[in-house]
Structure formats: structure tokens, C-alpha cells
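User: Sorry, what's this?
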Amino acid sequence: MKPTIIVMLFLLFLFNQTADAQFRDGQEKHNRGTYGLSGKVKQVKSYYYQTQEKFGKIVEKDLSKLFPRGIRKFDEKGNALEENEYNSEGALTESFTCKYDDKGNMIELNFFDHVEGQFRVIMKYDNKGNKIEVDSYDSKGSLLGKSMMKYDGRGNRIEINAYNPDGSLLRKMNKEEIEKSFKTQKNTPGYIAGIHRENTAEFDYDIEGNQIKQREYDNGVVSGLYIWVIEYYSK
């Protein structure tokens, strides 16, 4: 097994925990809030292209003729179901799909990377909803790594042990190291149905406060355009 796989899996685990702590106060969920989205979002398609000016105006392209750079899907509860990332030619570069239990805890994540290949992550919980084990497998079902967590009586995570496939210890983290690793920044407030301007970029937001357009500036001229097409569930 390549060492990069072990590192990637452990970083994936750390990312999941950090997102949980930031957006759901430690609950084991991965949802719209993880992406900073508001409202009952069903799907988000993202596009990017370099812009040109004609007669002093930005020429915007027909999105139906462009490949999306990313697609994210959510269920009605807000759980992330699927994410696909594409290159400029429309080829899939990364993707993941998620499964959840009746309590909304993520129990399975299937990941694909065009370089590293496919792997599957299985998550287990105790009867209090604390995540206690994360097992990672390759496309053939062989174990890639295992992480096991311990908690105190208040539900605070106090120990994480990450293991190699042969059972040898990869890394051990105590409570202080966990708190330092999972330290997060505050989420930036959204802007409702308007335009927010910064030095090198300008942003448009929809009525739900979700970002739908970003114009990049180079020496005062728009050089690139990001567009997010958001589909909502009916209220």
C-alpha cells in the first residue's frame, strides 16, 4: 500500500471531524452546513471560465455548453449524498457518495480519485451517537487503515488511535492534541440577495444567502467567473 493512501485517509478523517465540530457542535454529520449553504438545497452545480470583455461589458458564456466543474447533491434532511468534481474537459477527477443511519449519522463513504483509485470508509457509533471507529478499505475490500476513538463521561473525545492494516500504531492523539487539531475558525456570515465587494473579487448571493456568482479581478478587470447553479427542494 502506498504511504500516500494512509496519509490521505487519516486527513479525510480529520477533515470530517473538523467539519462536524464547526457546523454541528460535534455531531457526526456531513451536510449543507458543512459547505456553508442555507435553505433546502437539493443540488449545486459549479462552473468556472476565464472571461473576455467586448465593448466594455463582460461576455458571459452559455452554461448549457459548458462542463460543470462540480456537482453536489443533498437529501431533504440536508445530508450530503454525492459530490463529483470534473476537469475542464468534463472528465471525472474525484467523487464520493455517502450513506446515513436513521439518526443521520454518516455510516459509509465511498470515494474515488482518478490518481489513487477507489476506497470505502465505514463508520461505527456507540449508543450515545459518538463515533468510535473508522475503517477504510480499498476497491477489493482489503483493509487500508483503522481509527478508534475514546470519550469521557460527557461525550468529549479524549483519545484517537490510528492503525496501519497490519494493526501497528500509525498515530496516537490525546485530548490536548485533538483539541489543537480540530480548532476551527468561525463561519463567515452570508450576504442576502445582493453583491459583496472585496479588493480582488465581487460576489453575488441569492435570497437564501448562498453564493451564486464570483467575479475575479486582475488590475481592475474581470478575469474569471465562478457560477453556482443551485436547485432547492420545494418548501
Summary: The first helix runs from residue 3 to 24. Residues 48-63+188-235 form one domain. Residues 1-28, 184-196 have pLDDT under 50 and may be disordered. The chain is about 10% helix and 50% strand.
